[in-house]
Amino acid sequence: MLKLHAKLALPIAMLVTLGLVAPASATAPPSARLANSPSATADAPEVDDRRNQRRLAAKNPILGWLVVVVVAGGRQAVRVGVRAATSKAAKRAAKGVVRDLGLIIDSVSTPIKGDYKTAGGFKIKVNQDPKREDGYTSFDAFKTRWGAAGTGREWHHIVEQKAKNHQGNLFPSWKINNRQNLVNIRTGLHQKCINALMATKLKNLIKRDRDALKVVVVDANRDQTLRRTQRGYSFNNQHLFGLRLLNHCGVEIIGSGI
Fold it and tell me: Where are the domains of the chain?
């Protein structure tokens, strides 16, 4: 069972085996030469950088980050969720991921932290039916109780507000505006990754996106947006997909089962 925790609780190796984040090696700088090597003087800044990175990593927890990398040619944006101790390490890791895809980098955005908050520290779980007592009659009612998201942040519905079930009906407001279904994340992450991917047609998703989100593209759906393909699934299935999407965009989702 997967939970959203306030801090990273599992070793990075476990996250890598799930195929959810960039490998830790992608964040590591090139190996520095030994001090007695002929080029020791030239490599001194690199050694210092590695030492500084170790100090920063010791002081800071491993964080989730979103990095948007624009590739040369078609100006395509590759959205990379990574785990790193610092913004600099996150940018380095994202570059490594994109290069491994065989793409040439045009520009790299400033990494956006994938931190989040829940209403009153609520523990969100996979496949847990939302409880009516945790829900509200409207989004405004939810915000009246738990407050605005704050500067530079937004409340994000894991299952979208206008999501529909298999009968074509909207889910009840108390399910949508529920502590089980709302996370407070940074605006940039919301707009540049989650909303951007949901509006993308399946035929335009790169393989890395399709694999992470477990999306299968066939003739019948290739011209549909990612948002459109979610219609008709149960609340729990759409909730599970929403957690995958958050994780892919760099939010610190810990555990297995997605």
Answer: 12-113, 117-248
